Amino acid sequence: MANLTIHQLNKSFAFEKTRREVLKSLSLSIKDNEFVSVVGASGCGKSTLLSIIAGLEDTDSGQILVDDVPINGPGLDRGVVFQTYTLLPWLTALQNIEFALKAAGYSAAASRKVAREHLELVKLSKFANVYPNQLSGGMKQRVAIARAISYRPKILLMDEPFGALDAITRYQMQELLTKIWEQHRLTVMFITHDVEEAIYLSDRVIMLSVKEKGIKQIFDVNLPRPRDKEVMSSQAFIQLHREILDNIHQDIDSESLL
């Protein structure tokens, strides 16, 4: 049974005196504990799709289901991490996580206990009482991830979460995310412009098309786990990377001719 099901999703936005179609008849199923990345040229609807699944954006028509139950706005079954650091600046790292847990119905004592456990999970126990403006970008995202998974969502939705980080920190965050995913059996939808990142992290890579307003192609990532940096130099990785990039470039070229 699919954990996340998207059925015949349509979405458009007002544009001058008409409407601009972004997603058209998009259908997709993501299984329990599957890691799926979504790639595609700018304007293909990646972030719009994630916002709809998160319950932050309405649809024109179609249905989103989690374990066969239609979603109706944001819910505790879905955790969300954005590229921008969405921590509350007046709360410490620990308090940011506690805030989410209390909102989810945890008691004060349970919130403190679970928050500390998740700071330990992301290797930030020593920074529990530090405010966001005193943390590096990578540290802020670690707190954001800890907060998003602290109340045990079924699905983790991530919109370019590492896009603003330097290369070394980005790789460290990819390693951390992989370990958390393996340990907590999350279903993950990960939006990225970085095809190499998508392949490295994922079981499947979904390519959205600007021209077709939906899924152009789905690529299976048949690379053994656990993965390390060495896999990126393998022939299978390089070939898949080239194939996905070629498809994205073709989509951009075909759109530019319209």
Automatic annotation (TrEMBL):
Q: Which Gene3D superfamilies match?
A: P-loop containing nucleotide triphosphate hydrolases
Which keywords describe this protein according to UniProt? ATP-binding, Nucleotide-binding, Transport
Q: Does the keyword Nucleotide-binding apply?
A: yes
Q: Domain ABC transporter spans what residues?
A: 4-235
Residues crossing the lipid bilayer are: none
Superkingdom per UniProt: Bacteria
Q: Which GO terms describe its molecular function?
A: ATP binding; ATP hydrolysis activity
Record-linked Pfam families: ABC_tran
Q: InterPro entries from the xrefs?
A: AAA+_ATPase, ABC_transporter-like_ATP-bd, ABC_transporter-like_CS, ABC_transporter_ATP-bind, P-loop_NTPase
- The family this protein is said to belong to: Belongs to the ABC transporter superfamily.
Report the protein name in the record. ABC transporter ATP-binding protein
> What is the organism of origin for this protein?
Zophobihabitans entericus
